[in-house]
Design goal:
The strands form three sheets. The chain has a five-stranded antiparallel beta sheet, with no helix packed on it. A two-stranded antiparallel sheet has the order 1-2. It is an all-beta fold. The chain is rod-shaped. Helices cover about 0% and strands about 40% of the residues.
């Protein structure tokens, strides 16, 4: 009868992303004796004695926190609407695009002048003049702001907070 050997890998939470692993079996790496005569046996390995390779991939977690007040005055500038906390595990993450969708009732594209992204260098969740500017968009399509061509990096084992900041129209 056929017996199947299943090989299981437990990958450490501290593994480095981008590395690969797999498994293979060669006849010379087996020690086999027959059950009755006790003699050495040489197996014939057919196809399928090796696995494909798998890439150890890091993870990126994103936690959003609402920062907007229950009321915001017309013509307000630098209103922090949400903070996004990005945390990378096992390898650096390179974010090249972020799409922000505006929500709310009875608000149109003309009500928001610009939406900007800032790296929260103070880590207080509120925009201030020392934050690092990343990008802004004033043109939207139905409340969607596409920030493409970014070079926002989160080092392995690190976190970065991104501020989403609105400038409100004066009408």
């Amino acid at each position: 009868s056929n017996q199947h050997l299943i090989t299981v890998f437990n990958i450490s939470s501290g593994a480095t992303g981008g590395r690969t692993f797999g498994a293979s079996l060669a006849a010379s790496n087996l020690s086999i004796t027959t059950a009755v005569s006790g003699r050495a046996a040489t197996p014939t390995i057919l196809s399928g004695a090796g696995s494909n390779t798998s890439i150890i991939a890091g993870t990126l977690t994103v936690t959003g926190t609402s920062r907007v007040a229950s009321t915001t005055a017309i013509d307000s500038r630098n209103v922090t609407v949400v903070t996004l906390n990005f945390s990378a595990t096992s390898e650096q993450m390179n974010i090249s695009e972020i799409i922000i969708a505006r929500t709310g009732n009875n608000i149109g594209d003309a009500d928001i002048i610009t939406v900007s992204l800032f790296n929260d260098t103070i880590n207080d969740g509120v925009f201030n003049a020392t934050e690092t500017f990343i990008a802004n968009r004033s043109v939207t399509t139905n409340g969607v702001y596409n920030f493409s061509g970014l070079s926002f990096r989160i080092a392995s084992g690190a976190s970065q907070i991104l501020l989403v900041v609105f400038n409100i129209s004066n009408t």
